[in-house]
Specification:
The chain has 265 residues and is an alpha/beta fold. The chain is built from nine helices and eight strands. Helix content is 34%, strand content 15%. It has an eight-stranded mixed β-sheet with strand order 1-2-4-3-5-6-7-8, sandwiched between helices.
Length: 265
């Protein structure tokens, strides 16, 4: 593949149909995209973006993914949250923002689109650090989540800290390593929160250079052993960003996994 896989991060996408606030802070918002065409009401799809929880990365880079899902008939909300490097981000604000957003957004979306969005718990799609956040919400507030599609998730914060993913990203999120703040790891790390009862599908590319696929293999094995309802789909030859790129070879697998969660729902 000669094209830069990161191109999706800056590719223009249609503007969202509405931006909804779930809190008072400017980053406690979500962009709502209306589903194309006509069809039955469906649970909301909530997209949790990655970027290693850092302020430099916001929800805009998931525009192509969200627009493609809306074109396919799904109501979609791209949730924003306070991130590390800004006041209130990191521990615990990043985590509490996402918990609140996931709980509130289906109600707000159903008010905006009463005939197209049900009040059923939403399906969460989280990429990279957003995959961590999706697993975290499903583990800690399972009644608010109908299913999780985790795309190359940072599923084990202790291991991500040891591997120094993105140069200290986990320490920035939690305020230190597992030796300094063990209680925060215990509360926020999906690896310590298994079993995850919410139906979960993990997709990971074998060629991922940002989040090693081995982390998902190990996490899913441990989660399965603990009794989680979880499966892993490893995509040969796929890197980190193809999973959020509707123009990538991986995209049909993303759609298939989302459909399986919706049907299960």
């Amino acid at each position: 593949m000669s094209a830069d896989p990161r191109a999706v991060l800056t590719r223009p996408a249609p503007e969202p149909d509405r931006t909804m606030a779930y809190g008072d802070h400017p980053d406690q918002v979500a962009d709502l995209r209306f589903p194309a065409g006509v069809g039955p009401a469906r649970p909301l799809v909530v997209v949790l973006h990655g970027g290693f929880w850092r302020f430099e990365y916001d929800r805009r880079h998931t525009g192509p993914l969200a627009a493609a899902l809306a074109a396919g008939g799904y109501p979609v909300a791209q949730v924003e949250y306070r991130r590390t490097g800004q006041p209130g981000g990191g521990w615990p604000g990043t985590l509490t923002d996402v918990l609140t957003g996931v709980a509130e957004l289906p109600v707000l979306a159903a008010e905006a689109l009463p005939d197209r969005v049900t009040l059923a718990p939403p399906i969460l799609i989280g990429h990279s650090a957003g995959g961590h956040l999706a697993l975290y919400v499903a583990a800690t507030a399972p009644e608010t989540v109908g299913g999780v599609l985790a795309l190359a998730p940072v599923a084990d914060l202790g291991e991500a800290y040891r591997r120094d993913l993105d140069s200290g990203a986990v320490a920035a999120l939690l305020g230190g390593g597992p030796a300094e703040v063990p209680d925060r790891y215990a509360a926020a790390d999906p690896r310590s929160l298994v079993p995850i009862r919410t139906r979960t599908v993990v997709l990971h590319g074998s060629e991922d250079q940002q989040v090693p696929a081995e982390m998902s293999r190990n996490f899913v094995a441990a989660a399965t052993a603990a009794g989680s309802d979880i499966s892993l789909v490893e995509l040969p030859g796929c890197e980190h960003f193809g999973l959020i790129d509707p123009e990538s070879a991986a995209w049909p697998q993303v759609l298939q996994a989302l459909r399986s969660l919706h049907d299960h729902h």
